[in-house]
Amino acid sequence: MEVINQITLTLVKKVQKDFSQYSYQYEKKVFCAFNLTAQQIENKPFIDQLIDMLKSETNFIASFEITERQHFKNLAMAKANIRSLQEQGYQIKLDDAGTGYGGFSYFMDFNLDGVKIDKMFIDVIGVEDVKVEVLNSIIMMAKRLGIDIVAEGVETQQQVDFLRSHKIDYIQGYYYSKPVPFNDLDFND
To answer: If you write DSSP's letter for every residue of 53-99 in order, what string do you get?
Structure first.
C-alpha cells in the first residue's frame, strides 16, 4: 500500500516525543533501533528525510536494522544510503539474520555494524537441530568481522547461559522482560 515510509516517519516522531520526556528524568543514553526495508534503504529522499529528522536528536541514540523480507533492486543506491547513515554516526545491523533474502551476502555487500540473531536459531539451543550449526556459523562470522551480536527471543536460562558462554554482546527477550509501554520502562535497571 506504499505507506511504510509515512509509518516509519510517524514512529520516529512518536519515539522522539516519548524520549523528550525521558531526557528530563534520566541521564543514561539508550539506543533505539528502527527497522528499514530494502525499498526504504534504496530511497535517497526518504533516507535524507530520516537523517534530517534525527540530526539534532540528543535524547536517544538511533540505529537502523535492515530487514530481509525484500530483495534489493538497486544495490549501489542501498550501499550509498547505508554509507550516508553511517557517516552520520548511525549503526546499521542486519535483523533476523539468516531468515530472509539477503543472508550472508549482506555481510559482503554492506559494511554492517551488527547482526541480530533470529529467535528461530535461539529456540534450538540445547536441541539436536541443524540450525544450531547455522547459529554457530553466524556467531563465528560476526566475531571474525568484529561486529556486535544481538540475540533476540531469549526465553530460558539455558539460552542465556549458552549465549553468555559464546560472549554475545546483547541478549533480549522475554527472559528479561515482555514488551511494555514506554511509560512503564525502567531505565535505571
So the answer is: HHTT--SSEEEEEE-SSS--S-HHHHHHHHHHHHHTT-EEEEEEETS
For residue 63, what is its C-alpha cell?
A: 540505529
Question: For residues 145 and 35, what is the distance between their CA atoms, to the nearest angstrom?
Answer: 22
Q: Where are the domains of the chain?
A: 1-112, 118-189
pLDDT in tens, 81-100: 999 999 999 999 988 776 76
d(CA 37, CA 66): 6
Instruction: Tell me the helices (H) and strands (E) count for the chain, helix number first.
Output: 8, 6
Candidates 3.80.10.10, 3.40.50.720, 2.30.30.50, 3.20.20.450; CATH matching 1-112: 3.20.20.450
| Selection from 1, 85, 11 nearest residue 47 by Cα | 85
Residue 109 near residue 82 (C-beta atoms within 8 A): no
Rounded Cα distance between 159 and 168, Å, is 11
Task: Express each pLDDT in 116-128 by its tens digit.
Answer: 998 999 999 988 8
